[in-house]
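Q: what does this look like with zinc ion bound?
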Amino acid sequence: MIVDCHTHWADCFQSRDGLDPSRWLADEARHGVTHALVLPYLGLLDDRLLRQENDDLAAVCAASAGRMIPFCTVNPFRKVEAVAEFRRAIEVLKMRGLKIHPWLQGVSINSDAMDELCEMAGHWKMPVLFHDGTPCYSLPSQAAMLARRHPKTTMVLGHCGLFEHWREAIAAMRGAENLWGCLCGPHLAALSEIVRRCDCQRLLWGSDFGFSFADVAGYRLGLLQSLRLNDSDYERITAENPKRLLGPVFSN
Ligand SMILES: [Zn+2]
């Protein structure tokens, strides 16, 4: 079992395949990826599209025989609508978590709306996954501040700081016990430092597959394997930690 904890269902797949995930799944399966946490794309760029995209993403994942696990998005800039849409995504669409991309969405994550969304996520045991690694709204330290204010909510740095903020991501995870990190973006030397200095029980692996037809899953899985982790750490990062993060979803 390998769980890719950072993928997208983007418009390139939707315009080619409609709501049929079979070719998307085949691309991931070529690398041994058995399950994927799937994040939105268009709804992050334009909040007029996010409700439709949440619907589409739920439908695509429902057609995947349990292999694709959908995360919704909302726009925290519009608090009332954001809270209502998050509730709809959980109760009606049965989505499994919340993705916020503060940089693309143009919102600070330290806000009243985010506080309320985080409390809801904690209540429902839904992880909140952030894009991180790009100023001015998407820094790991900003996510850490939010995580410390909401200790019952599990939050994930979707990129562990990317190329320039991975040191900050290490400090952020060490300073907030409910903050996890997805190894998706930093270079090999940074990945090695993250694994060495952070709690391995809170690390995940992801590829960012699905933005385009590029074969990034093979590339990023190769990076992870280049770290030469022992078997138990590799198993934790690729399978055991995602199971703990997402709860009983894999038994479906
Ligand atoms: Zn992404």
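The mean pLDDT is 96. Residues 66 and 252 are 7 Å apart (CA to CA).
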